[in-house]
Amino acid sequence: MNQPQFRPPAEAASVILQIDEGCPHNACTFCGMYKGMRYRQRSWDEIERIVCDEAAQAPDADRIFLADGDVMARSFDDLERLLDRIAQAFPRLARVSLYANGSSIAAKSDAELRTLRAKRLHTLYLGLESGDNEVLARCHKGETAEIMAESGQRAQAAGLRISVMVLLGLAGRNGSRNHALHTAEVLNHMQPRLLSTLRVIPVPGTELARQAQAGSFEMLTEAEVVEELHTLLGALELRGTVFRSDHTSNVLSLQGRLPAHRDALLAQLDALLRSGRLDHRSPGRLPLWL
Predict the structure, then answer these.
(1) CA pair distance 253, 135, nearest whole angstrom
(2) Which positions ≥6 away from 181 have C-beta within 8 Å?
(3) Which of 20, 47, 75, 193 is the least crowded, having the fewest Cβ atoms under 10 Å away?
(4) Number of compact structural domains in the chain
(5) Residue 288 lies in a domain
(6) 3-state DSSP call for residue 285?
(7) For the whole prediction, is pTM greater than 0.85?
(8) What pLDDT, in 10s, does the model give residues 59-112?
(9) Beta-sheet strands, E only, within 169-278
(10) What is the CATH number of the domain that holds 231?
(11) Which backbone phi and psi does 205 adopt, to 5 degrees?
(12) Residue 85 CB partners (closer than 8 Å, separation 6+)
């Protein structure tokens, strides 16, 4: 049965095809999305059934999201075949999107990326998390900032759109400023079309939650996470990016276009930091769900 559990908020109106189960990496300390799930690429017979079933239920669908964790990790030949089949099944198809890692993008040549774009692959959701390689190593991301930045640039040069996610607070309290500044540096190099920031929350059952319980990872206070976002935004030099910080984990909801709205966004953060409403001793009220 096609019952995907996870998709980006922007794909709420998309038909979701669960092409694979789980995540090929599945080692990030902060992520509880696919824990306990063994990664498996579904067979073509299974994929055919899923595509046919969904096309029968939503024959006029024009947006498709491919789940689970990193369908871009499939071979170019697989992806080309898959996109051709989806276009055949959904005659009004406009765009196909999926989660991707830097290494799975890097495994494709420039010509292959252009071909995938021509076959209506549209948006790649890339979890940068941090531009600080020390932070990435500690959270077992399995990627470097340099590979993710280069992959994002190459994908966009091929006509694909990159939507980048950053995790505020991932470096803990001691590494907060470096995390923000290094992340801004990578984003300035990558120039993503879309950028989202989320606050890291130690999810029960994850390694990060165990580290937090043991005291080896200390969450930022509510005020500190706003300071970190302020530092990040202040260092960004983006030339055409839609920015969102409106996830349920965030202290406040922000959105705008960069660079046009950067000063206004910074002013909102400044006002909040001066307001006296922020908790300076604890992370504050945390969401019940993510």
Answers:
(1) 25
(2) 231, 232, 235
(3) 75
(4) 1
(5) no
(6) coil
(7) yes
(8) 999 999 999 989 999 999 999 999 999 999 999 999 999 999 999 999 999 999
(9) 194-199, 241-245, 254-258
(10) 3.20.20.70
(11) 95, -10
(12) 47, 48, 51
